[in-house]
Amino acid sequence: MPRPSVEAERKAQILASTCKVIASEGFRHLRVSDVAKDAGVSGGTVHYYFETKRELTDAAFAHCFEQSLTRRRWILDSDEPPLSRLRLVVESYLPQGAETVEAWKVWAELWVEAIRNPELQELNERFYGEWRDIVASIFRDGQATGEIHASGNPVELANMLVSMLDGLALQVLAGSKAMTVDVMRTTCLRFVDQLSTASVG
């Protein structure tokens, strides 16, 4: 049996390859053999860590979410003012750069499949709920410091920003000529700026 450190590295490698295949081929067309080929391992090795395809894809979605948070942990843990953190969140989630675009495609596949799949609906609820709570906490910080209007419900404000990011990013990924990355950035940042108490008057 491989050493624990080797197991962890190989498992992460398989999950990263699974996300890559989901992004490129789609959830429904994912084959374990394609994941194994991309990861440079045998199909048997994939099944050693994940007995079923469902276990593999569920773990891949979790991996994608955790990696997304890890890449942005510096923003969430920074001492920047809340509005600055929200602007950084917007910038970091623009669908540009291979890593971020791949993650967006994985989430798009999850959302499409979750429409018809109760198990994936539960996964989406868990991950999406955690992300919404994180964004809402930034809004709460801003209201506590007086930087953000105190009249808005933090969860509702988080829903507005998150849904704006999601919807516009899907349009960018779909190749909309009207919704480019630059237009998305401008639109989302304008929303964030309008929350500032400094914008009043």
Characterization of this structure:
Pfam families: TetR_C_6, TetR_N. It is a single chain. The protein has 9 helices and no strands. Helix 7 (118-145) packs across helix 8. By secondary structure, the chain is an all-alpha fold.
Structural class: mainly alpha
Could you say which overall geometry the principal axes of the C-alpha atoms support? elongated
Summed up, the domain count is 1
Helix content: over 70%
Number of helices: 9
For the record, give the distance between the C-alpha atoms at the N and C termini, rounded to a whole number: 67 Å
pLDDT averaged over residues:
92
Order of helices and strands: HHHHHHHHH
SSE blueprint and pairings:
Blueprint: H1 4-25, H2 32-39, H3 43-49, H4 53-76, H5 82-92, H6 98-114, H7 118-145, H8 154-173, H9 181-193
Helix pairs in contact: 1-2, 1-4, 1-6, 4-6, 4-7, 5-7, 5-9, 6-7, 7-8, 8-9
Task: Provide tags for this entry.
single chain, 201 residues, mainly alpha, Tetracycline Repressor, domain 2, elongated
What's a concise summary of this model?
By secondary structure, this protein is mainly α. It has helices at about 5-25, 30-40, 45-50, 55-75, 80-90, 100-115, 120-145, 155-175, 180-195.
